């Protein structure tokens, strides 16, 4: 990669070899296409929509919207009146283009060498069979289906079967508690649950069927009865017999013949063709619950037409997808990243996708790179938290594998600090792979601010520029738009095709969350800095801003300064009460292997924050821990850390926490480092 240094930032230019095969190979072409997407959105997206199958093509008002609640209810309509089917477009259309024998999915199980694959033609056959199973159980257009499964081809099959018959799927991350699953079933009024007998994540057993049983019992107590619970034999667990006293090596599951049905049993007799149910472009495709920390779960609704064209288009350009590329994203299918890049956006491009059930660290921290070599992965996409966690183990687990097939690397989920960015490029990417640092959310459904790898000069840590059709702005606390270099709140001025349409069953909550604070804008809830070159730098959630002695600091800035030290793998900064200053910085750190915490290291870290940002950024407390509390999608739960600093054990809803065992360490070690 070509590197140019300036006093302010490092700029890294795409190499000439990569540009030769790029869809967009120079920044002027990006600017021309972007300009058209803003000035003529109907013409721009109509041309893209022509690549898809429409039973009735878009012909009425292409886009109709209101972003200002002062003018009435918030409303967004893209291509309303057009008729299509998502499943048909990601399977039948691809097969009709001659790609039926292409591998759609390589599946890598939790255990090494537990793998299988499926072609587009065979995937369609399985999807049609399961669609017919759903119909045989009484599922009809508009019904809601809950899916609670590990990352498997069967999970994708269930999602696409819902899309084929016009049902709305709600995928719940396999690992949420029974209470969290029940809350989501009840909130969406789901009529049927699809689950598995159990799963392993690393060495941890997840009793999915038991959790599902408890969730359904909770739903029944509240008067909600399901049509059926369809159970996939993922681990082939036995059924507990009331009159048999045994002690099996594997756990047994309970069985309720009134509601429980084996997946394989009903699939054996199902027809392998199902005519698609034709849907309006504005009909809902899925509901996905955001990983909010407190309160009632928030079901974000995405619709078919706009999501289809935007998910497919972002996948094509952001990853510079070319025919026969192998794509590997580590995201779980229970999150929006998994929905868009592991299912809909990728399949719509005819991609071969790697699905990975396990964790990056099992059976050792080289597992991902082993998969990359085995399957000749070309595009690799993961979260910054995974990168920082892998950095902790050093370079040896990466360099054990060649990774010569890699052409492009990407990140999503949170801002990436420059140190992790360079490690990712130089160690994982052998110094030759561009990095697409993508900003998006559950509500946006696909990347919004992102480099395009063949043309965008990259600044490590910056998401760079808006994607086609996206109009970002920076506003201050009063909602005044700021121009030129600025720091403030990130908002969007107009809709893009895949914008969420509502919060399921609560449109008022949708309006209050995203449109009330800054009238006329969609509010992301994220802070942002725009530099003199127009690059956007996401500074973290606006509510994660740190108020120290009356000055605002961003968590991303402070944490990036700390993680820049060679001994630090991860850092999380929160604000906590101080008897003199009012508030002060309290920083939790995770050390890399081979390093120990000491007074000298503590002084170095404080000095580093002071030198990089200013005296106010020096943490009052540095608290070493073995791990940080994170949501199941890998985001640091700073709300929990703030409670720890106050020795407040009233944690609220922690159902989204990936590993609750870390809490004991956080609270029990606090007294060693805190000042009160």
Automatic annotation (TrEMBL):
Instruction: Name all AMP-binding enzyme C-terminal domain ranges.
Output: 557-635
Sorted alphabetically, the Gene Ontology BP terms of this entry are: acetyl-CoA biosynthetic process from acetate
Keywords from UniProt, A to Z, are: ATP-binding, Ligase, Nucleotide-binding
What range(s) does the AMP-dependent synthetase/ligase domain occupy? 100-496
User: What is the top-level taxon of the source organism?
Assistant: Eukaryota
Q: Which residues form the Acetyl-coenzyme A synthetase N-terminal domain?
A: 30-90
The UniProt entry, under InterPro entries, shows:
Ac_CoA_lig, ACAS_N, AMP-bd_C, AMP-bd_C_sf, AMP-binding_CS, AMP-dep_synth/lig_dom, ANL_N_sf
What's a Pfam family this protein contains? ACAS_N
Gene3D superfamilies found in the cross-reference section? 3.30.300.30, N-terminal domain of ligase-like
- What is the reaction catalyzed? acetate + ATP + CoA = acetyl-CoA + AMP + diphosphate
UniProt-listed Enzyme Commission number(s): 6.2.1.1
GO molecular function terms attached to this record: acetate-CoA ligase activity; AMP binding; ATP binding
The answer on whether this UniProt entry bears the keyword Nucleotide-binding reads yes
Protein family membership? Belongs to the ATP-dependent AMP-binding enzyme family.
Name of this chain's protein: Acetyl-coenzyme A synthetase
Q: Taxonomy-wise, where does this protein's organism fall, top ranks first?
A: Eukaryota, Metazoa, Ecdysozoa, Arthropoda, Chelicerata
């Amino acid at each position: 990669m070509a590197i140019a240094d300036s006093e302010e930032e490092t700029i890294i230019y795409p190499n000439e070899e990569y540009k030769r095969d790029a869809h967009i190979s120079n920044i002027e072409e990006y600017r021309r296409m972007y300009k058209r997407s803003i000035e003529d959105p109907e013409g721009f997206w109509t041309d893209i929509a022509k690549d898809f199958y429409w039973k009735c093509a878009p012909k009425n008002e292409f886009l109709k919207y209101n972003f200002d609640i002062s003018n009435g209810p918030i409303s967004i309509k893209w291509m309303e009146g057009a008729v299509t089917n998502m499943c048909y477009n990601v399977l039948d259309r691809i097969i009709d283009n001659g790609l039926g024998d292409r591998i759609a999915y390589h599946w890598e199980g939790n255990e090494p060498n537990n793998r299988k694959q499926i072609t587009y033609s065979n995937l369609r056959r399985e999807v049609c069979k399961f669609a017919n199973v759903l119909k045989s159980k009484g599922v009809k257009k508009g019904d809601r289906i809950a899916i609670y499964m590990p990352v498997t081809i069967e999970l994708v099959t269930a999602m696409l079967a819902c899309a084929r018959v016009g049902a709305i799927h709600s995928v719940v991350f396999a690992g949420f508690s029974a209470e969290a699953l029940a809350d989501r079933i009840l909130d969406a009024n789901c009529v049927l649950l699809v689950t598995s007998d159990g799963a392993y994540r690393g060495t941890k057993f997840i009793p999915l069927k038991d959790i599902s049983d408890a969730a359904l019992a909770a739903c029944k107590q509240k008067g909600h009865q399901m049509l059926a619970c369809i159970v996939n034999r993922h681990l082939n667990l036995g059924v507990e017999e009331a009159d048999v006293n045994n002690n099996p090596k594997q756990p047994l599951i309970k069985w309720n013949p009134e509601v429980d049905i084996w997946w394989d049993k009903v699939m054996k007799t199902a027809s392998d063709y199902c005519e698609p149910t034709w849907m309006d472009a504005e009909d809902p495709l899925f509901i996905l619950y955001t990983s909010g920390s407190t309160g009632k779960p928030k079901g974000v609704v995405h619709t078919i037409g706009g999501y289809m064209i935007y998910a497919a288009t972002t996948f094509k350009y952001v990853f510079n997808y070319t025919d026969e590329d192998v794509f590997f994203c580590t995201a779980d299918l229970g999150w929006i990243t998994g929905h868009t890049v592991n299912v809909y956006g990728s399949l719509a491009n005819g991609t071969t996708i790697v699905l990975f059930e396990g964790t990056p660290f099992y059976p050792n921290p080289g597992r991902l790179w082993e998969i990359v070599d085995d399957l000749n992965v070309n595009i690799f996409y993961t979260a910054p938290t995974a990168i920082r966690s892998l950095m902790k183990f050093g370079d040896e687990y990466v360099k054990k594998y060649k990774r010569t097939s890699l052409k492009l690397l990407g990140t999503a989920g949170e801002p990436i600090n420059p140190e992790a960015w360079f490690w990712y490029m130089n160690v994982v990417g052998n110094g030759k792979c561009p990095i697409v640092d993508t900003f998006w959310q559950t509500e946006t459904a696909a990347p919004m601010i992102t480099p395009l790898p063949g043309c965008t000069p990259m600044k490590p840590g910056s998401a760079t520029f808006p994607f086609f059709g996206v109009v970002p702005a920076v506003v201050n606390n009063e909602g005044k738009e700021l121009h030129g270099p600025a720091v403030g709140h990130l908002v969007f001025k107009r809709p893009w095709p895949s914008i969420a349409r509502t919060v399921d069953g609560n449109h008022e909550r949708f309006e209050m969350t995203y449109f009330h604070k800054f009238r006329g804008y969609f509010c992301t809830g994220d802070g942002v800095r725009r530099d003199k070159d127009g690059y956007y730098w996401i500074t973290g959630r606006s509510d994660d801003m740190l108020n120290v002695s009356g000055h605002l600091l961003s968590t991303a800035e402070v944490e990036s300064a700390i993680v820049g030290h060679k001994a630090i793998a991860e850092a999380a900064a929160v604000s906590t009460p101080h008897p003199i200053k009012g508030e002060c910085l309290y920083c939790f750190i995770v050390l890399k292997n081979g390093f120990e915490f000491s007074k000298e290291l503590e002084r170095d870290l404080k000095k580093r924050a002071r030198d990089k940002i200013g005296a106010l950024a020096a943490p009052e407390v540095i608290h070493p821990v073995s791990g940080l509390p994170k949501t199941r999608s890998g985001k640091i739960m700073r709300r929990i850390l703030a409670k720890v600093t106050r020795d407040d054990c009233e944690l609220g809803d922690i159902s989204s926490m990936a590993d609750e065992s870390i809490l004991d360490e956080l609270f029990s070690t606090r007294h060693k480092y805190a000042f009160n």
